[in-house]
Structure formats: structure tokens, C-alpha cells
Write a structure and sequence with these properties.
- The complex is a heterodimer of chains A (199) and B (122).
- With 199 residues, chain A is of the alpha+beta class.
- Chain A has 2 domains: 125 residues, no CATH class; 51 residues, no CATH class.
- Chain A has 3 helices and 5 strands, in the order αβαββββα.
- Chain B has one domain.
- Chain B contains 3 helices and 5 strands.
- With 122 residues, chain B is α+β, with helices and mostly antiparallel strands.
- Chain B is rod-shaped and about 85 Å long.
- The N and C termini of chain B lie far apart (52 Å).
- In chain B, strands 1, 2, 3, 4 and 5 form a 5-stranded antiparallel sheet that branches.
- The longest helix of chain B has 15 residues.
- Classes of the chains: A alpha+beta (199), B alpha+beta (122).
- β1 of chain A pairs parallel with β4 of chain B, so a sheet runs across the interface.
């Protein structure tokens, strides 16, 4: 009787403490078929038949650029809080992230012929952290928001309709318009032409 | 004794039978570029007007010097989750149905490609 009661208490306590052991899996797109890079002078039609429409595209001064991508993001986190016991003033968190991905970039000239192609794939530690937060939970130890953003094509037109003047001036060089180059997900804000954007 | 066992069973059941979740998110242009539709289009003959009449406004129009490209995108995410008291797991799959159409300086279709993923296709 006593042993069962202690087991029960132990179970209840465990349940109250381990309220945030979670795993998130994001699979964005599909793996890029084959690792055969399009050879130089391959026609646009052949590339499109082989890879399908690109996920990202932009005009360039010498023609245009297309990109295909696939991302597999794995987020693991463990959180302990006393919230379930009615004491919402302490939390301890641990988290980590793993990022696998592929990116294929192909450039074309004005005659619709491939001028260059490059492919990369990666399987990296995407960061993580630990936190003990006594009163309020301010910090998220794993942040995947910039990796799972919607595609920029959904913002079509809106970039030209921004109300405040400094932001509206950015649209002429924005990499989200399809006219001024493209960039991969999670590119830091301080890199490339977006570092010149005005808030 | 029986009460304790019953309580333990209840606690274990509560942790196993937490909850499950399922959701989906759809963004972008409605998919009208199935093969049955685009079979009507012919490179060198069809015009931008034909494509717009079939598919409606695109997600993006890209100016390529004298040429233009119409880009259609439909983003579809499906998530499934297991929400237990001590363990939670979410799996979110996102697929991109898309189509691209190139037009020359006379607004005549020069090249196009489409890709549509079925519900269970990866």
C-alpha cells in the first residue's frame, strides 16, 4: 500500500514537471531529383522537364536565375516547469535543432541556355540552448521561424504598396520581387543588398 | 490497494491518451494547372491572354527584358501531431504546386512547365 502510494506520487510529480518534451519536424519541398547538374548550354526546356518549375526565380542582367530547394528541419526540446503545480514562476528549458537541406542554383542567358549550375547539400547543427528562467519565460532556446517562412511569391505586389516611405523605397532592390536576385532561407539580414534596406 | 492501482492506471492512461492534432494550411493561387488544362496550351501559338484566361492572375510576374514570365504557386502544409502529457511530436510537411510560363516580346508562349503534388505524394 505504501509502495503504491509512493509510486503514484512519483508519477504525478513526474507528469507535473515534464510538461514540455517535444519534437517538431518540418519537411519543406521534396528532395531534388538526382545530383546531375545541368550541363552548360542545356536548354531551359530540358531543365524544366527534368526539375519542374523552380521554387525561386529572378531576372538578372545577363538572363535569369532559378533555384530549387528542399529542407528537413528537426527541432527537439525539453522543458520543465512548475506551472502545473500552480507555481508559474520557474522553467528550465533545453533545445536543439538539426537542419538538412539541398539547394540547386542554375543561371540562364537571354537565349534560355544554362550558363552555370551549382548544387549544395548540408546536414548541420542548427543551434540550440539551455535556459533557467525564474519568473517569466522570455527566451526561446530554439528558433526556427526564419527557416519555415512562406515563399516570397505570396507577397507579390504588396512590396510596392507599402505605406511608409522608407520601406517603400526598399522594393526597388528587394530580393523578394523576382527582379533583383534571390536568396536562400535564413540568410542573415546584414548580408547582401538587404543590408541596405531602410526601416 | 485497488484504488491505488486504479489511480496509477488512470494516470498512465491520461499521459497516453493526451490528444492528437491535425491541421493544414493553404496559401497561394488555386491550382488550375493540371495536365488536362495545360494540354490546351501550345508553345509558339498560345498567348499570355490564353494562359491568364485559363489560370487567372499569377503569384508573380517577372520581367525578363523583352520577355515576361508568369509564376503560379500554391503552398500546402499538412501537420500531424501527438500531444501527450510527457511527450509531444509534430510533423509538418509542406509541398509547393507550381507552374511557370515564359512569353516572348509578342506575348506568345515560348516555354512552360508545371508540377502538382497529389495528397499522398512526396
Amino acid at each position: 500500500m505504501k509502495a503504491s502510494f509512493i509510486t503514484l506520487l512519483y508519477l504525478l510529480l513526474s507528469h507535473s514537471l515534464l510538461t514540455g518534451c517535444s519534437q517538431w519536424r518540418y519537411d519543406l519541398g521534396v528532395p531534388i531529383s538526382g545530383n546531375n547538374l545541368p550541363a552548360q548550354r542545356t536548354s531551359l526546356n530540358e531543365v524544366l522537364q527534368s526539375l519542374g518549375p523552380p521554387l525561386r526565380m529572378s531576372a538578372s542582367h545577363t538572363g535569369f536565375i532559378m533555384a530549387w530547394e528542399h529542407w528537413d528541419i528537426r527541432e527537439n526540446s525539453l522543458g520543465i516547469t512548475l506551472g502545473a503545480l500552480g507555481a508559474d514562476f520557474f522553467s528550465a528549458d533545453w533545445g536543439e535543432m538539426r537542419i538538412k537541406g539541398e539547394f540547386l542554383l542554375v543561371t540562364f542567358d537571354h537565349k534560355h541556355l544554362v550558363t552555370s549550375a551549382t548544387h549544395s547539400d548540408w546536414d548541420n547543427d542548427g543551434g540550440g540552448g539551455q535556459a533557467i528562467q525564474p519568473f517569466f519565460s522570455f527566451v526561446s532556446v530554439v528558433d526556427v521561424e526564419d527557416l519555415i517562412d512562406a515563399m516570397p511569391q505570396h507577397d507579390w505586389g504588396s512590396l510596392l504598396l507599402q505605406a511608409d516611405l522608407p520601406s517603400a523605397l526598399n522594393s526597388g532592390s528587394s530580393s523578394d520581387t523576382g527582379q533583383q536576385g534571390l536568396q536562400q532561407r535564413a540568410t542573415p539580414k546584414a548580408v547582401g543588398q538587404q543590408s541596405l534596406e531602410m526601416d | 490497494m485497488h484504488k491505488s492501482i486504479l489511480l496509477i492506471v488512470l494516470v498512465v492512461c491520461a499521459s497516453l491518451l493526451g490528444a492528437c492534432a491535425q491541421f493544414e494550411s493553404k496559401r497561394g493561387v488555386e491550382v488550375n494547372w493540371q495536365d488536362t488544362v495545360t494540354n490546351e496550351l501550345v508553345n509558339g501559338t498560345s498567348t499570355r491572354k490564353d494562359v491568364l484566361a485559363l489560370l487567372g492572375p499569377p503569384s508573380q510576374i517577372i520581367a525578363l527584358g523583352d520577355e515576361t514570365a508568369l509564376y503560379y504557386l500554391f503552398e500546402h502544409s499538412e501537420g500531424e501531431g501527438l500531444v501527450l502529457i510527457v511527450y509531444n511530436r509534430m510533423q509538418i510537411n509542406t509541398r509547393y504546386d507550381r507552374a511557370i510560363f515564359f512569353f516572348d516580346e509578342n506575348d506568345t508562349l515560348s516555354e512552360f512547365a508545371t508540377r502538382v503534388y497529389g495528397a499522398d505524394e512526396s
